[in-house]
Each structure stands twice: as C-alpha cells, then as structure tokens.
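Hi team,

As requested, here is the filled-out complex form for the manganese (II) ion run. I kept the field names the same as last time so the parser does not choke. Let me know if anything looks off before we queue the next batch.

— J.
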Amino acid sequence: MSYLFTPTPTIGLPIVGRPELFPVHRVYCVGRNYEDHAKEMGFTGREPPFFFLKPADAVLVVPAGETGRMAYPTLTQNLHHEIELVAAIGKGGKNIKAADAMQHVFGYAVGLDMTRRDLQNDMKKQGRPWCIGKAFEQSAPIGPITPAAQAGDIEKAGIWLQVNGADRQRSNVSKLIWNLAETIEHLSAAWDLQPGDLIMTGTPEGVAAVVKGDTLVGGVDGLTELRVQMA
Ligand code: MN
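And here is what came back:
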C-alpha cells in the first residue's frame, strides 16, 4: 500500500540532553487558568477548566539558541502573545487521577499561544468555536523540552515574556488556578491522553498585541528560553 500523496511529516521538538526528538501528537490548551488573566479578559473567579486544541502542525519548533520566525498571520489586526508553560506527555492514559498525573509527564517547555484576539472575540460574541482565533499556522511557537527530572521545581517557577526587551508578562506557575495534575485529571476524563500530547497550561496577565518586527523572548525558570521574531 502507498499513500496518494506524501503524508504530512510528524512535528518533532528537540529534547534537552538527548538526541531524539519528541514527536507531537495533539496540542491541548487550557483557557483562562490564571486569575489575573481571567480578570483582564472580563471574568472572575475559579470556573471549571475548559480546553481547546491547536493542530500539531501549528507548532513552530524553535531549537535552543535560535530565533523562530513567525509570519504575521492573515485576517487579524490584533495578534496577541500568551506565554505558557507547556507540559509534554510521555505516558498516555484515560481517567488519570491528579495524584498519579505527574507520572505521565515527560517534561516541560516554554510556549506561546499566539492568538488572533479580534477574531477570537468575534467568535465568543457569536457563541462560535475559537479555531480561527487560536488554531492557525505557526500559532504555537515552542522551545526544547526539558525532562521533568532536570526542570527543577516547575510548579513554583517564574514565567515571563519580554517584547523588544520590555516586560509584558511576569508571574509564577504557582498561580495557576488548576495546577498541572488537576488539569491532567480533567483532560483525561474527556480525551484519551497519548504519548506526544502537549498541554499548554494557560497564560498569566499582561497579554497584548505584537506587530511585524517585534522580538519576543519568554521563559519559565529552569527551562530553555524561547525566542521568536515576527516576520
Ligand atoms: Mn492560552
């Protein structure tokens, strides 16, 4: 048997200290998972976690020491940055309990949930899916994955983003409304988690627009920095 045309290649993320690539299966994203970001988006308090997805081929792989080049997407005048801790699932499962969840995490990376905010807001108003605002080409620039054992105390790590050298977002992973273990419990009740799945855990406050030519540098303490230029 042969394919009608060449299948889309699997997206592979570099792994710190290892020669293999991490093959990406799905990209799950958590919405409004830091209180101060929920507030800036017009919401308050702790609501049950909710999820959306980006296609695996929306990942823009940015190796260590390199600058990813993201083409400014079509249809938007308000492209927002959302810096996020990304968890990489190494062992799949369904109905995973929070107490067991961390055994399923292979490692962590720094990612950007780039968002066509004007289009997302239009969809919200109309009660329509967010895909056009969230799930476009190169909408998920992600850096190398650091294995969990080498990532330090990720649950208490600082998370930050600078644009052209100026602070835009600065918070701490400890401020997640739903921590990673709880997120995995909720996610795996709805979907069968697979090795290769990525979870973008949500962004802290300070989301704002970028324009062509901007340089974004983001980090989570203990992980490889992510550098992206808007082209
Ligand atoms: Mn996000």
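Two things worth flagging: The longest strand covers residues 105-112. The mean pLDDT is 97.

Thanks,
J.
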